[in-house]
């Protein structure tokens, strides 16, 4: 990852809304047997538009996640501290290898590489071959192979992985280390990452990315992949494994002396490759290794590929991917002024020192800290050369040779710098194909099997009893459909509060009054406060059910607990705070939609404990997803209304363009069920669908 890549600084600051297209004209009838209709829209009162948003708990979600990850790290540190012998250390190495496989596997079948050399650049002491190979069928990888001239016997080989540079392998820092290695006698294969260099996945007619190269393409392709049970980091790692496969076919390479190095996002891939591939002899990840906790505490977003599913739940940290390679030689490269916290690099090094010491190979773990900012600086590259030279004995050079930086076009493997001209397969095409295959295999799911699948996939915890709650000062002057609004903060689990407004014509500053049989609970899209003013459905519900108590809520991370973390006003950006907690939820193996569904279920428990006997559950947009799941599982829900609910996860997985955020997606869902299964089941609870949204219609 490079959250703030030096050569693509704006990628983190782009304000690209994940939700921006109106839902006009998108509706249908017969979703899961339910009726689909249109609701009339009205404009907000001018005075209401000037109100500042309410946000009682802007730090709640951040502190909740920090607490969870701190506890995980504490247990993991206790496990490491219990290592006292070589046998203990060997057992630990085997444990982390198994856990890493649980995050990244299973791997696809190795298919023919079909390599071809499309050109050769001749230089004084080395040549650069322009190579294209296929890591998967019809999925080309563009690479440059730097080969020393005049060699008479096989030389050590290195796979070079690139960070977040728009031009991939042609970026100055990356071609520098590849050329430097070649001048020192190594054979180096450096390849373009997916979505960078010559491998754009969303290329337009001008061969430019429709979404932005690097971070943006990684998020766009990777988020969608979760629906079909794929992990973009595993795809990226597979490219690295197949790059090694190709390197080992070359007669110039000594297969017993192969290493891997890269910086930033390439440091990520180097780290992951240490954990998933056993053939490396040596490694040097630069400007990545720290701790998951430091990144979280420092509010530093990471790309999809940098957040392995279940990694935190399994107690893994960056250091464990290096531990999986122990006791082979690895040097951690960091920078004093890096945004990847060098304190975390020191922690990782200290852990690895203990492990390597028990394995009798303490000299095989190293740490070098450069003096500058994030990047594969000359100081860090020279540290890598020295480390590899120490391992291979091929050279005693301690400084970088003089380099000649090539133009991008000189290093292109394709005629115009993009494989898209060849019309190959894209990541999306595989996601689409996988979704269709899962749909055919899955069939319809219903009854108790559906409920069990929802509970399992969402990782819903058991819950019973009435949750505790706070009575906050009532909201006034907010232009709600009723004159007064009592405000409650319901504790759905320790550290998490769901905000609830109860509307009434009379002032209410105490617990909800008893004696009202039916409650309407509206689950907001993004802000109950704003939607109480602007969403006409709420007024329609009040008019249709004048005897019912009316409540509106924000689940965690929405409205009154919308995080103010990561970057200012970043909530709706692809790399912002909403994404930040959704991706950490995947690493915790507790999908964000599942956490929000738990909030709704606990609010239903609370309403019943307050004396209501039945609930009409209403959800809109993003809120329709947890409302759907909660309605399916809660016996107290007797009626369901969904507005702007997602048509299906299959629609989203099979559409190349989409506008739903990661916080609404459930990893692996399409292997078990889809939303239409839930909608069919909810027909028994008088489900009414209003203006369903497809893949492109998630409003911002």
Automatic annotation (TrEMBL):
Q: What sequence ranges are listed for the domain Acetyl xylan esterase?
A: 124-286
Cross-referenced InterPro entries, in alphabetical order? AB_hydrolase_fold, AXE1_dom, FrsA_esterase, TAT_signal
Which PROSITE patterns does its entry note? TAT (PS51318)
Record's protein name:
Acetyl xylan esterase domain-containing protein
List the source organism.
Answer: Chthoniobacter flavus Ellin428
- Lineage, please? Bacteria, Pseudomonadati, Verrucomicrobiota, Spartobacteria, Chthoniobacterales
